[in-house]
Amino acid sequence: KAGVTQTPRYLIKTRGQQVTLSCSPISGHRSVSWYQQTPGQGLQFLFEYFSETQRNKGNFPGRFSGRQFSNSRSEMNVSTLELGDSALYLCASSLGYTSGSIETQYFGPGTRLLVL
Amino acid sequence: AQSVTQPDIHITVSEGASLELRCNYSYGATPYLFWYVQSPGQGLQLLLKYFSGDTLVQGIKGFEAEFKRSQSSFNLRKPSVHWSDAAEYFCAVGAKKLTFGTGTRLTIIP
User: Which residue of A27, A63, B26, B89 pairs with B3 in a disulfide if CB–CB is 3.0 to 4.6 A?
Assistant: First the structure.
């Protein structure tokens, strides 16, 4: 079974631009979560999508948004990029049962975003 | 609020030596604990997880971890490290929204 895939793998943008990152989950997985990894802040949870709805959200500004499609693929968008948005953005997928269940998240290779 | 502490930022061990990476957590109820490994430029690979039951869990690549509720710890161990184990290791807690520790970078000396 193919793992989580993320595109593009590398991206360079300038301040003020916007960017869209894509994540395809493992086949059969319905939940997709996004994380930001930076040297200063470490790994931080952005949000989780399940059945095309945002189910959990971290403490990030509204410039960070996402969506999920009917095939469970997800996109993350960052508008008005700032230098501090330079990071590795990781996507993780899981089966996505009820909100009360515990699940294992499987991570993709990440998209490395550099903001100049 | 849930939190994870990995007190060791960087550990260096000789190839063939034993390894223990420390992880302490804070969680409101029964903790759901994970160890992930990240090689340079890569995503996170799951090593093992603890949800309930036996407090000693076995993972991939010869790793194991022991859950100790009284110490709020979930330390990762390996009896004999290989050069390919050099990477960064993250402990995490959570059911849906994972909270990660700051990571421990492992260097292996030949």
Answer: B26
